[in-house]
C-alpha cells in the first residue's frame, strides 16, 4: 500500500491538537527553577539572621589580676555649683595602708575624689566559693567607678562560661550601670540578654539579674 502524503490541513490539525495537550498539562509538574527556596535540605524554614538574639557580654576564662602599682599623685575635684564630692582620704598611695592604692574615685555626678582602695583578690581562688575576682583599676591616681575601683570579690552564680549550661557567664549591672555580679544566661528562658532587648520595655531599659532571673529593670536617677 502506498504512503499517502499528509495534506497541509491534516498537518495543521495535528499541530493544534499537540498545542492544546501541552496547555492542559498540570503546571505543578513543571520543574522548579526558583533558587530562592525558603527551606533547607531538612525541610526546616531558614532563620533570618536578623531574628537571632544578641550575644551578651560573657566570661570565657578566669582572669588573673594585676596588683596595685604606681606612686602617681591623685587629684580630687572641688565643689561645683554648690555640690561637693566626698572628702578625699589620700593624695597618693603613700597615704594609704600598705598594699592599698589611691584612686580618683567617682563620688557624685561628674565629681571625683581620691580614696584608698584595698585589692581584695588577684584570682578567683582568693574569693569565697560563691564569688569571683573582678579585675579593676589598680594604677595609682587613675579614675574609677564603683566595683571597678581596685580588684573586687563579687557575687557569682558562675565563674566562667563552662559553669553555665548555655555557655554564657555574664556580668549583671545595677540600674545605674555599676557592676554587681556574674550569673548564667539562658537564651531559651531569659527575658533579655542585653540592654538592647530592653529598649522600649515597660519594665525598664536595663537587662539585669534580679530575683534569680534576667529581666528588664527600671533606671532611677543615678548619682
Q: Runs with pLDDT <50, length 5+?
A: 6-50
Give the helix level as a range of percent: under 10%
Q: Mean of residue pLDDT?
A: 81
Number of strands: 9
Distance between the termini: 112 Å
Structural class: mainly beta
What is the CA-atom radius of gyration, in angstroms?
34 Å
Strands ordered across the widest β-sheet: 2-1-4
Give me the number of helical elements: 1
> How would you sum up the global shape?
flat
Give an account of the 3D structure.
With 223 residues, the chain is mainly beta. The chain has a domain at 93-217. The protein is 7% helix and 21% strand. The protein has 1 helix and 9 strands. It has one helix spanning 8-23; strands spanning 101-108, 111-117, 131-134, 143-144, 152-155, 169-173, 179-184, 206-210, 213-217. The strands form 4 sheets. Strands 2-1-4 form a 3-stranded mixed β-sheet, with no helix packed on it. A two-stranded antiparallel sheet has the order 3-5. Strand 8 and strand 9 (213-217) form a beta hairpin. The longest helix has 16 residues, at 8-23. Mean pLDDT is 81; it is low at 6-50.
SSE topology sketch:
Elements: H1 8-23, E1 101-108, E2 111-117, E3 131-134, E4 143-144, E5 152-155, E6 169-173, E7 179-184, E8 206-210, E9 213-217
Parallel strand pairs: 1-4
Antiparallel strand pairs: 1-2, 3-5, 6-7, 8-9
Amino acid at each position: 500500500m502506498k504512503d499517502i502524503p499528509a495534506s497541509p490541513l491534516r498537518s495543521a490539525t495535528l499541530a493544534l491538537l499537540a498545542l492544546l495537550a501541552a496547555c492542559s498539562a498540570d503546571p505543578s509538574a513543571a520543574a522548579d527553577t526558583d533558587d530562592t527556596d525558603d527551606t533547607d535540605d531538612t525541610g526546616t524554614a531558614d532563620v533570618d539572621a536578623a531574628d537571632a538574639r544578641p550575644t551578651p557580654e560573657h566570661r570565657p576564662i578566669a582572669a588573673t589580676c594585676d596588683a596595685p602599682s604606681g606612686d602617681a599623685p591623685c587629684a580630687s575635684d572641688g565643689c561645683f555649683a554648690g555640690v561637693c564630692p566626698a572628702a578625699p582620704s589620700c593624695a597618693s598611695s603613700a597615704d594609704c595602708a600598705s598594699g592599698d592604692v589611691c584612686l580618683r574615685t567617682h563620688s557624685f555626678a561628674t565629681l571625683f575624689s581620691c580614696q584608698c582602695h584595698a585589692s581584695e583578690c588577684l584570682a578567683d581562688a582568693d574569693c569565697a566559693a560563691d564569688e569571683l575576682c573582678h579585675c579593676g583599676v589598680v594604677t595609682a591616681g587613675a579614675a574609677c567607678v564603683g566595683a571597678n575601683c581596685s580588684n573586687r570579690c563579687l557575687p557569682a552564680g558562675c565563674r566562667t562560661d563552662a559553669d553555665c549550661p548555655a555557655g554564657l557567664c555574664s556580668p549583671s549591672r545595677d540600674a545605674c550601670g555599676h557592676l554587681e555580679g556574674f550569673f548564667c544566661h539562658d537564651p531559651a528562658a531569659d527575658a533579655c540578654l542585653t540592654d538592647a532587648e530592653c529598649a522600649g520595655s515597660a519594665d525598664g531599659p536595663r537587662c539585669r539579674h534580679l530575683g534569680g532571673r534576667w529581666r528588664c529593670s527600671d533606671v532611677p536617677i543615678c548619682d
